[in-house]
Amino acid sequence: MRASQFPLFTSRETPADAEIVSHQLMLRAGLIEKIGAGLYTWQPLGLRVMRRVEQIVREEMDRIGAMEVLMPAVQPAELWEESGRWSLYGPELLRLTDRHERDFCIGPTHEEVITDYLRRELRSYRQLPLRYYQIQTKFRDEIRPRFGVMRAREFVMKDAYSFHLDQASLEATYADMHNAYTRIFERLGLHFRSVGADSGAIGGSVSEEFMVLADSGEDEIASCTACGYAANTELATSRPVAPTADTPLPAEERETPDVHTVAEQCAYLDISPMQVVKSVVVMADETPAVLFIAGDDELNLVKVAHALDAEDVRLAEPDEALAATGVPRGFIGPKGLPEGLTQRVDHRAAALVNFSSGAGRADWHWINLNWDRDLPLPPCADLRTAAAGEGCPCCDEGHLVIDRGIEVGHIFQLGTKYSESMDARVLDEDGHKQPLIMGCYGIGVSRVVAAAIEQNHDDQGIIWPAPLAPFDVAIVTIGADRSPDVAETAERLYSELRAAGYDPLLDDRDARPGVKFADIELIGIPHRLVVGARGLENGAVEYRDRTQPENEQLPVADLPQALG
Ligand code: ATP
Ligand code: MG
Ligand code: MG
Ligand code: MG
Q1: Global pTM?
Q2: Model-level ipTM above the cut of 0.95
Q3: Per-residue pLDDT averaged across 323-337, rounded?
Q4: What is the per-residue burial (b if ≥16 Cβ within 10 Å, else e) of 259-283?
Q5: How many Å apart are CA 497 and CA 101, to the nearest integer?
Q6: Can you tell me which atom of ligand 1 is nearest the CA of 296?
Q7: How many angstroms separate the alpha carbon of residue 273 from the centre of ligand 3?
Q8: Which residues form a coiled coil (predicted)?
Q9: Ligand 1 atom nearest to CA at 201
Q10: What is the C-alpha to C-alpha distance for residues 227 and 457, in angstroms, rounded to an integer?
C-alpha cells in the first residue's frame, strides 16, 4: 500500500474524553472513529488489525474442527422467551419492534439462535459432537460504554458453541477450546492468564476467562504465588450469594414476616440466586447511592451480590419502597433508565429486582439495603470463593496476589441450560430422548485490538506485536522529488518486499521527514526503512526496529533478507 493512496488520519492531540492509553492511541492513530456512545467506525487502518486478529482466531478454530457459521444479528423475542432470558437479561438487551409489532432483540450473544438451529437440523446422536463458530457483530446496551472499543455497545465477537451427548465429550471439547485459546493469545503476542470465572448471564457451572494483564483492566485477578491457582475476584465475591434453599435462618428473622433472605426468596420463586444477582444493577460510588433497576453490569454486581448476602433483605411493595426512599415512580419498569438516575437516598439504598421464574413472569420488587459502609470480602475456605490476601485455598503454601486484567475470552460448560428450556433433544443409542449438552466460547475480537495496545505502546505511540501490525514494514522516502535514485530504490524495495511475503507501506507522501517518522511510530509499524540520497551514496538504508531506540544502517543489497 502507498501512503499517497491510503490516507493516515493521524492526530497529535490527545482526545479529551479518552481515559486510557489504548483509546487515546486508537483515536490518534486513526484506527477508529466514534459516531455515538459505544459506537465506532473501524477505519481502514484499524480494520487491517482486526482482520489479523480474526485470521488467527479462524485458523485456530478451524484447526480444532469447528465449523464457521453466520447467524443473524437480529433475533426473534420468542427464542429468548423460551430460554427465559427475555425477562432476565435486563436493559443490556436492546429490544426493538418491527412494523408488524413483533418483538426482536439485537443479539448480545447467540445461545438461543444456535440451539434453535440444532434442534431443527440435528438428525442423530451419531452426528455429535458438533462445534460451530462465527465472527460477528454483537450489541450490548452497556450502562457505561467507555474506553473506546474496549467496552463498546456494538463490538465484534468470535462466539463458538458445542453440542454433545455426554459430559465427557463436552469436557474434551472444552479442553480443546482452552488449548486453542491459549494458542490464539500466544500467537497474538499477548501477556495473558486463564482464570476461574463466574458464568454470569450466560449460565452454566464451569467457566474460565482469558485475561490480558494490564493496569487499566476492569477485572481483578487473584493468583497464588505458589501453585498458580488464579480466579477473577468477581467470582470470589459473587459466590457467597448462592445459599442453598436449606440455609437455616436466624430465629429472629424467621419471626419477622417481611424479612427474607435471598435463599428464602429464591426457594419461593424457584430461581437461582445468581439469577437474582444478575438482574440487579447497582449504581454505587463512595457515598451511599441508589441501587436500582434490572440489568447485567458485572462490575457492580459484585457489590450487590455481597450486599444481598450480608444484609437482611426487606421486600416491600414498590409504592412503599418508593415512599420510603423518595425515588421517583419512573424508576420502576424494565425499559431503560428513567430520569432521576443519580438521585441520592440518604444512607439507605434501594435495589429494584426483577424476580423472574424464567417462564415469562416478571415481578418487580424493591429491595432496601444498608449501603453506608464498605463491605468486607467474605471469609471462605472453598477454592471458588478464594479472596485476596488469604492463604491460598489450593495449596495452603502461597498467598493470593492481585493483578488487573482485561477479559478477552471466556469459555463455559453450559450443560443443558438452553437445551432443557428450549427442548433441544436427540434420541440416544437406546432410543431415549436426551437434552443436548452444550458449551460456549467467546473471544472479544475488537477488544483484543485495544488490549494489545494497552500492553504494547510507548510515548511515541503503538508498538504492534508483529502478528497484529496493520503493515509489517514502512518504507519512508526522503527527498524522493529531488533524487530519482531514492524514488527508484524505494519502489524496488516495495516490490521486493511484497514478493517476499511482506505487507509494506510505502510512505511516498510529500511531507517533511519528521511528520512521516512521527506517523509511522504512532501507528506502530514494527520495521521502518528510510531511503535517502545520503545513505544511498554508501549503498545503505536506515533501519529502525520499533522496539529499539537506535537506528542501524543496512546495505540495500541485503534486503529484504536482512529483515529476517
Ligand atoms: P465484561 O465482563 O467485560 O462485561 P462479559 O463477561 O459480559 O464481558 P462475555 O459474555 O463473556 O462478556 O462475552 C465474551 C467476550 O466478549 C468477553 O470475554 C469480552 O472479551 C467481549 N466483550 C463483552 N462485552 C464487550 C463489550 N461491551 N465491548 C467489547 N467486547 C466485549
Ligand atoms: Mg465478564
Ligand atoms: Mg458484560
Ligand atoms: Mg465473560
Answers
A1: 0.76
A2: yes
A3: 36
A4: bbbbbbbbbebebebbbbbbbbbbb
A5: 57
A6: 7
A7: 18
A8: none
A9: 10
A10: 31
